Amino acid sequence: MAQSNDKKPPVRFQRSNYVVSDLDRALPVYTEVLGLDLVFVKESAEDSYSYEVFQIDRAAKMRFAVLGTSEQPNCMALTELKGVDLADVPLPSRSAIVLECTDFDGVKDRANAAGLKVFEEGNLVTKDGRKGRELGFLDHDGNLIVIYLILEHPES
Tell me, what's the pLDDT at 5? Predict the structure, then answer.
């Protein structure tokens, strides 16, 4: 069923994310080999929601890079973990999908009803100042899904 142009679809794929051990080593694969554009790199806050949903030991230091193309901004992310040996540890979750979701509460309710592992909801603040809600949950095979809903846009 086609969506009208004036109504936002209930789910929009935002980006995939991979956990890497060395961001400086990983970035050329995505920028030089694949040709993605580096949008930004930032240090993750000590209270980042990623620690909980990716099940990362809080002793690890994180950096986050977002990549995209002119047609698909912010379609890929890399999360660097320092202080964790990724080869020997089944957790943290090594990848995720991130979905903008207009039916945030419905998805949350359905994930809980399905008996999935649902993490505590977090407050989202984007790099451009938008505020909203975010929620992570695991599918039956342990794959991480993060949904978000933007509630406030910064004044222009």
Answer: 61
